[in-house]
Amino acid sequence: MSSQMQFGIFSVSDITRDPTTGETPSEAQRIRDIVTIAKHVEEVGLDVFALGEHHNPPFFSSSPTTTLAYIGAQTERLILSTATTLITTNDPVKIAEDYAMLQHLTGGRVDLVMGRGNTGPVYPWFGQDIRQGLPLAIENYALLRELWEKDVVDWEGKFRSPLQGFTSTPRPLDGVAPFVWHGSIRTPEIAEQAAYYGDGFFANNIFWPKEHYQRLITLYRQRYAHYGHGTPEQAIVGLGGQAFMAKNSQDAVAAFRPYFDNAPVYGHGPSLEEFQELTPLTVGSPQQVVDRYAAMREHYGDYQRQLFLLDHAGLPLKTVLEQIDLLGTEVVPVLRRELAQNRPAEVPDAPTHAARVAAVYGDGPAREARPTSAGGNNLTVGGPYQDTPVAVAVTSGSAFGVAATRTGAAR
Amino acid sequence: MTRRIAVVSAGLSNPSSTRMLADRLASATVGELRERGIEATVDVIELRDLAHDITNNLLAGFAPPALEDALNRVVSADGLIAVTPIFSTSYSGLFKSFIDVIDPDALAGMPVLIGANAGTARHSLAIDYAIRPLFAYLHAEPVPTGVFAASSDWGAQADDVKPLASRIERGARELAESIARREQQEVLDPFDPDAFLGEGRSFGHLLGGLASD
Predict the structure, then answer these.
(1) Which residue, A105, A255, A326, A369, has most beta carbons within 10 Å?
(2) Of A61-65, A376-380, B53-57, which gets the smallest average pLDDT?
(3) CB of A399 within 8 A of CB of A142?
(4) NADPH-dependent FMN reductase-like domain spans which residues (chain B) (predicted)?
(5) How do the pLDDT tens digits run along chain B, 213 residues long?
(6) Per-residue pLDDT reduced to its tens digit, A3-59
(7) CATH number at residue B166
(8) A96-111 per-position pLDDT tens digit
């Protein structure tokens, strides 16, 4: 089902001591809880659950597609996304495979947010150099796109071993790759990258003042138009956000303060009051949250996706589920109504697999990839799939890098 | 053509001898520039007033508005006068924390006059073994003279061979010459594609071999 805007939550997957009880959940408990949380997001009528990726304690989410597939099996409408997928240290071949697989298992309810991560040692753990973070993000994503778009890929780059006649399996569901957002909090090159490909741009919008994200989103929208994908207003923007609610705003402040004061990211720094003033964190009544987030489009333009960070900093499951209830019943229905008002007709709806398939095939049948008997020999025997255009399979070359300018090389 | 000098003073007391030295250095520099036909204004940044913001920036990763404003005034200045008390053999922790929240590339090429103060002249070499390397690391351009003021420089037992006033004058002259030599800086908007891609270039250039678009 298509909707103008998608709402949901995103989790960084931290396992944090509850400062009010001193209890730290076990990994087993927290992982069970995240499944309960994701299912509840669908139950209250929200659209998206996005999960982070980390490779060190106190986080559990090293393997997002495993978790998302398990959640996908227990939900029906929920879009499963990431926050973020590490495009720098993951092998783009594995990302291509894993997320195409997840697409198939969940009927296309998958998209991704690409990010570079914020944990320095992850780079050396995966054999990379943090100083190459941006070039890695650019090259790896270019390869990922190619792996999803072409049945047979010849590729040579700076960071990964070359590929000759490689086919990433399974092919994207219906021949349409997952929608991709690019996340950044300060890097104009990433806004440029999102614009270049006509992908979405996601601003996490949690930890910093809005001006930081405004500059990036303005740049992204201008460059989206520059690269010919539409008007600036037609660019696809997603925002994060952060809220804690109670019927009575004073109760919300009192309940959230110990979690804020001890939160791993901003604890022991600015006061809750300062942080609310400087960042989109809103602690108060559902109406206050509605007012704050209904105004986001005044800063960023009409947009497509709004995610909230609710499960973090040691908040217990019961509290998180109550927050999701408030979000689903008192905040999002009002936001949907308010943000629909005066939304220009040219502003696109939030991306879904169904809409993207329809955009490619119209009413016609979508691609169904059926392997040939070539047995993976893509170099000499036609294509790997019955409908792989032979010309494409034979002449496919790298779109960039050394291979793009090489002539006369073995195909 | 008006120039702007940012003065960073890391003194903790009020009144502070760090600030006294900073003010002397600033007014001497303005005077030296005027002799060269250049008008200059001075922005004084008292780090004591920003101490909580600086800590919050270190913890939360962004500068609250007052600190943001101070940082912008420092990095966009034509010259910098940086004055810190010497604590335990080096610049004060507050001074270093302020430097730490400045973009590491933002002071490249910046003419800097270093000042420092402490109880006795025994700490004076801290300018050259501690503070100067900091600015060298940042690719700033500290002038050869650093001005150190001991408590005694302000009254009895002052150095009467090379008194503080003559050292201030020498440092100020060097900074003024450095500012006068330096072409006025055009501040590039980091979110202008010409700034991060290179003029007239496109994302295709970042991709490497393909430069067609």
Answers:
(1) A326
(2) A376-380
(3) yes
(4) 4-154
(5) 799 999 999 999 988 999 999 999 999 999 999 999 999 999 999 999 999 999 999 999 899 999 999 999 999 999 999 999 999 999 999 999 999 999 999 999 999 999 999 999 999 999 999 999 999 999 999 999 999 999 999 988 888 888 999 999 999 999 999 999 998 777 778 899 988 998 888 898 888 754 444
(6) 899 999 999 999 999 999 999 999 999 999 999 999 999 999 999 999 999 999 999
(7) 3.40.50.360
(8) 999 999 999 999 999 9
Q: Which residue among A219, A227, A401 places its CB closest to the CB of B191?
A: A219
Residues B163 and B148 occupy one common structural domain: yes
Structural domain range at position B193: 189-213
Q: Do A196 and B203 touch (CB under 8 A)?
A: yes
CA distance B211 to A45: 46
Within a domain: A380: no
Q: Based on the fold, state whether residues B153 and B205 are members of the same structural domain.
A: no
Number of domains in chain B: 2
Is the distance from CB of B9 to CB of B22 less than 8 angstroms?
A: yes
**In the predicted model, what is the mean pLDDT of residues A312-337?**
98
Q: What's the pTM value of the predicted model, to 2 decimals?
A: 0.90
Does residue A380 register a pLDDT over 70?
Answer: no
Q: Say how many CA atoms lie within 13 Å of B88 toward its Cβ.
A: 2
- B8 and B98 co-located in one domain: yes
Q: At CB < 8 Å, which residues of chain B contact A?
A: 55-56, 59-62, 64-65, 190-191, 193, 195-197, 202-204, 206-210
Q: Is A404 on the interface with B (CB under 8 A)?
A: yes
Residue A9, beta-bridge partner list:
A49, A308
DSSP chain B: --EEEEEEE---SSS-HHHHHHHHHHHHHHHHHHHTT--EEEEEEEHHHHHHHHHHHHHHSS--HHHHHHHHHHHTSSEEEEEEEEETTEE-HHHHHHHHHS-TTTTTT-EEEEEEEESSGGGTTHIIIIIHHHHHHTT-EE-S--EEEEGGGGSTT--SSS-HHHHHHHHHHHHHHHHHHSPPPPPPPTTSHHHHH-TT--HHHHTSS----
Q: Compute CA B139 distance to the chain's CA centroid, rounded to the nearest angstrom.
A: 12
User: What are the angstrom distances between the C-alpha of A3 and each of A78, A145, A354, A394?
Assistant: 13, 26, 12, 41
Domain shared by B204 and B160, yes or no: no
A 219-238 residues with CB below 8 A of B?
219, 223, 227
Q: Do residues B212 and B153 both lie within one domain? A: no
Same domain, B105 and B206: no
